[in-house]
Amino acid sequence: MTSFDEVLGLGDDALIAAQRLGQWCARAPELEEDVALANIALDQLGAARLLLTYAGELEGAGRDEDALAFRRTDREFRNVLLVELPDRDFAVLIAKLLFLSAYQRLRYESLAAGDDERLAGIAAKTVKESAYHLDHSALWTVRLGDGTEISHARMQDAVDEVWPYTHELFADAPELRAAWLSTVDGVLTEAMLRRPEDGWQPTGGRDGRHTEALSYLLAEMQVLHRAHPGAHW
Amino acid sequence: MSDDRRLTGPAQVPAHEWPLWEVFVRPRRGLSHSHVGSLHAPDAALALRNARDLYTRRQEGVSIWVVPAAAITASSPDEKDAFFDPAADKIYRHPTFYEVPDGAAHL
């Protein structure tokens, strides 16, 4: 039996990633990249809706996707810290998306083959999207890492900054880390980037202990719903 | 004649701008690729991905070609008359001089 917390964690990862990606709308370096990031954000949002709806049913307390997305406080969110980190620049966005999508692809792949038919269906649909997100972020990692001196330095900074937060991805699924490392290593090597040493391993997201960045993100995401409960377009 | 690329060579792209690519999409098997529009991208691989996002997100295609816009040699609007007009008055080029046999429904 799949637990409410497990599905909620997957749904919150997708929802918070979608909100962060959505913040790039009209701010990406080129119009074409703007559309690509918005597409990826909408993929994540679509996955979040399916997962949160299912989580609400597993909980059995009458909460639907909207109740879970808009009426919880930061301490009730179960996403990993990685997805809530602010996108300081385009390189950080790309590093986060690379690490997240490489993980999501493996996680959804294994869930698609799992016993829970409902979750397997959601995962089978979503895994193709994750493969595309990985492709997109890997292409950019290589172009920035193996680009100019400045783009290389900024991409390496981004990878170094985000790396500690990747450990939390495997708290629920430690068996996936070897395959994840092999994917990520391949991209970093092609991008002429150095894989950071494993050191500090911040956690807490899955228990509701988040960085302050999540509170600001939620304030923006939830303000309309909280001001006008039950409003419809 | 500034729009005639045969005379001016490939359009000069400012260093800070991505080059322009023309996009061709095949809607389904058996049909040929058709021009659907253009986009900017730093290289061919990203042009292909951008084309996927911009022109096939509602399942419009099964195959995409991207071509550097600078690689296309186009006829000039100023030469329209010399290029295309003579075709119109040569009536023997149009298949109107024979009877279609009975029963040949789909000619």
Secondary structure: helix percent of chain B: 10-25%
Arithmetic mean pLDDT of chain A: 96
Separate helix tally of chain A: 9
Strand count, sense and closure of the main sheet of chain B?
3 strands, antiparallel
Number of strands of chain B: 3
Poorly predicted residue ranges of chain A: none
> Briefly, what CATH class of the domain at 5-78 in chain B?
Alpha Beta
Which oligomeric form is depicted? heterodimer
What portion of residues of chain A is helical? 55-70%
Quote the average pLDDT of chain B: 80
Low-confidence stretches of chain B: 1-10
CATH topology of the domain at 5-78 in chain B: Ubiquitin-like (UB roll)
Q: Note the overall shape of chain A.
A: globular
Proper CATH architecture of the domain at 5-78 in chain B? Roll
Which overall shape of chain B is indicated by the principal axes computed on the Cα atoms?
Answer: flat
Q: Total strand count of chain A, please?
A: 0
Distance between the termini of chain B: 42 Å
